[in-house]
Amino acid sequence: MNTSWLIARHEFLSRVRTKGFIISTLLAPVGLLVVLALPILVSELAQTQGTHRIAVVDQSPHAIAPILVAKDSTLFFPATEPIATLRARVLADSLTGYLLIPPDGIERDSVVLFTRGGGGLGLQEAVSDAVREVFRRQRLLARGADTTLLRLAEQKTKIERIKITRERTERDQTAQLTIIGYGMSIIVYMLLFIYGGIVMRSVLEEKTNRIVEILASSARPFDIMLGKVLGVGAVGLFQMLLWIVLGIGVSIAVGTTLLSLSGATTQAGALAHYRAQDNQVAMLLLQLPSLSVGHIAAFVFFFLSGYVFYSALFAGIAAAADTEQDIQTLQAPVSIFIVLPMLVIPLVMSPPDAPAAAILSLIPMFSPVLMLMRLFATEVPWWQVLLSVVLMVASIIGAVWIAGRIYRIGILRYGQRPTFRQILRWIAEG
Amino acid sequence: MAFIELDRVSKRYGTFYANRDISFAVEQGRLFGVLGPNGAGKTTLLRMITRILLPDEGTIFFAGEPLAQHHQRRIGYVPEERGLYKNLTVLDNLRYFGQLKGLSSAEVTRRALWWLQRMDAHGWEKKKIRELSKGMSQKVQFIVSVLHDPPLLVLDEPFSGLDPLNAQVFLDVIAELRAKGTTILFSTHVMEQVEQLCDDIVLINRGRIVESGSLRQIKARYGIRRLELAFDGDDSFLEKLDGIAIAERRNGSISIELSGGIEQAQHIIARALEHGTLRRAECIEPTLREIFIETVRHTESQEVTL
Which of A51, A375, B35, B133 qualifies as a FRET site for A265, CA 20 to 30 Å off? Predict the structure, then answer.
């Protein structure tokens, strides 16, 4: 055990000091930030620049063009030139396009937009939203609708969701938490592969460089394996800790940025601004629910237990292999269990309380992804959580035991890649 | 008292015996050679003595106790193929492996620097292993095995690939360690080194011991095989003798293969004195190489006839 500790410490220190660790720790959240912030920035920029201009050719008897122009004067302007000229201007790129309202446009509820194509979905949506609203309004007015009534009809309804628990009523954040849970599960899924891969490559390197023979002349093979798994796991945990610290910093930065982009001074003002724009991402980011200690503990537990379970098996696999190709072949029956839960996520999410979801998430190989996900998406009964933890711990012990037996025999064996049958015999005979 | 003793030790891979019924003892402070052709089971044997592998049958004793995990701290091991972290520096490698043997970080650093100096490797400590030549990394590997000052040193083919200059450094250090009382066990198939260095040997073939004992005992057992005469006169009397063969005749010196040992040699010398002037006569013991080849061939032909 003492040697395991020395080996784990060596693994940890020699990895944390590398440039690769520092770079990946810094770049991963930057990448995440860019992915999250990009759509908001793009939509903000698109809104403020207003480079699209559309000429409205109104052939209807209802004078719709002025109403459209009044609604969005940065996008629409009344056409003064003949269609042939407009067409030439569109082709010369001095105009985005022109909108033709046919004489019976309102009656047939149809208009024609001429552009050179492109412009994105945003432009199409902006045009069709505006036209639809104006048409609806005109039709209602034509039937003698009252303007105050109209205003009432057009009012947007706000749904505030309240979740009832035994202790208290609180704002229901199920949607946000589900998305966060989904994100967490994907992070765990990726980390299992990344850190499992590190363990696998490092075991193979020590085997092919014959370093393991030196290690085995000082420590039991089981302790070597355990030390490596724990040392690399500590690197993962440390990286996660740095990300949490970085994440707090980044979320403060994002909040401030969103606030200043919206031009509002208060959180509520900014929220109203983005609601008006229907900017879902920005709204979500502004309303991020604060995670409970339980959520963070679940994340850490399921990452660590999944990591130890899979990386121990990966260490055994690498010990049985001689080359990267051997690893590719041998790891498949283990890797499949990391991938499978990602495929059944839709099943588990609809709804997350169903028996099928509960059973799937209790299978230890799946728990790190599925139970974690359910813990965010719903209130999992306490006995299920407990059962999951117990099953997970038992599976870890089993996986480490099996991997230890494969490792001990495989690590000093070179030459032909063992068959699965042989590996089973190693496990049975030790 | 025997420092290392093996009692009917066997190691099996499936149905194949890498070592079978191996028993021998190594006295403290001796230089002990494990000899055998490629694939004879030398490496498996050394791995069991260093407790990298556990025997399937039989017991190994270390200083009188059954070999246990904690004895590893008193054993130094140089494997046949070099095993060092290529991306780490010489000093980081030495520190890590030294700490695994129970040394403190400060102690291991002090000793590592001393040993680098001793092995003519001063100033390498900051170099990465990948920058070192084969001979250089071999020296580092050797230092790994002696950092913790083990009473038992196990070397698997320690001299393969060393140039004569470096080999001499190794030989000197080994001689020093031996003078200090370190028991040294090494495997090789280079017979000349064994004759030069070893006190005792075991010769293994196909996993079994085929010969063991002190070098002198073994040679005595194989007896006199050859007689060399420097002779002036008519040597035709040799043709009439039974049980000999003339191996070589050159510049008045004759090399004769004997079948009757020392008595036959003395008989030939007596006859030679009658037939001319005998300037020199020498009874030659078999070289270890000859014993090796003969024994290996003998055991293999036996197995074939079985």
Answer: A51
